[in-house]
TrEMBL record:
Keywords: Metal-binding, Oxidoreductase, Zinc. The keyword Oxidoreductase applies. Belongs to the zinc-containing alcohol dehydrogenase family. Residues 10-332 form the Enoyl reductase (ER) domain. This is Alcohol dehydrogenase catalytic domain-containing protein. Gene3D superfamilies: Medium-chain alcohol dehydrogenases, catalytic domain, NAD(P)-binding Rossmann-like Domain. SUPFAM superfamilies: GroES-like (SSF50129), NAD(P)-binding Rossmann-fold domains (SSF51735). Pfam families: ADH_N, ADH_zinc_N. Its cofactor is Zn(2+). InterPro entries: ADH-like_C, ADH-like_N, ADH_Zn_CS, ER, GroES-like_sf, NAD(P)-bd_dom_sf, Zn_alcohol_dh.
Amino acid sequence: MKAAIFVQAGLPLAIEDRPIPRPGPHQALIRVHRCGICGSDLHMTSGSPFDMPCGTAPGHEYAGEVVEVGPDAAPIRVGDRVTALPMSACGDCPACRADMPLHCTALRSMAGGYGEYTLIDTRKAIRLPDTLTYADGALVEPLASALRGVRRMGPLGPESRVAILGAGAIGASAAFWARRLGAGHVAMIARSRRNEGLAAAMGADGFLTVNDDLPRQLEQMLGGAPDIVIEGAGSSGAIQQSINLVGNGGTVLSLGGCIQPDPIMPAIAMFKDIRLQFSVAYGLADFIQCVNALDAGALEPRALVGETISLAALPARFEAMRSGSHAAKVMVDPTII
Ligand SMILES: [Zn+2]
Ligand SMILES: [Zn+2]
């Protein structure tokens, strides 16, 4: 099979021939139909301490068709259309029992969506309802990350004022969940107006740029200072900017995952008496909630999807995305010859 392999930082991904893996216990082999390109794939192949192992295929936002199952794979069967958490975990440790498999001591990455086939853990897989496409299935992972973060903000209601910094996939997904989970006022702030349409499609009431008269215009838009500022930008300075914007006693939720040292002024956060919350990943419950929302007709997240490219086009496109400018989510379809 063909797969796009991370050779080493500084080199583009390489399309290589690899043996098709065979599923072990609790595993299934899927033919990948869609895999989203994520900012973290770029980060984890950039020569930072967070790099993935050289010689492996990235790709953790995937959906595909089950073509072979290993022992004890039930209820997942050959022919099922699935998405899955891109990880395998023991299922029995405190982290797993808390539905936080990323922190399982037996964690194993099941990335590999940038290939024609990849293995999944069937205990972490969800069948796609007929209403959902493979592209929808590949959106579940990024949606689940945002969902977990927004859920941590506690109940939202008509009075909730949420501002989101960064209008890429993470920020827009956070807007979708803030709205869907009941927030009455949702505003997005970005560097440019490019994603204003996306923000509106995902449920934001208003859109501002960093060049606007913040925080005055933000307060006007929300009817007061935000109780919650969600940082989905991942750039240096975004956490401090969020602290500057949040109202007294509010919460800053950081989902951006900046990989540079990023100073903040603690005295401002302290004076405002705010909570600074980080959030990573998701559990099976988050995946199920995402699939159920899409199946119930909340198809706004389709607005996230931009171009769909072949595996052969992936390495050049992936490098081009490092220079920063990527609007909608690019998806790889490894079935395109
Ligand atoms: Zn991702
Ligand atoms: Zn575990």
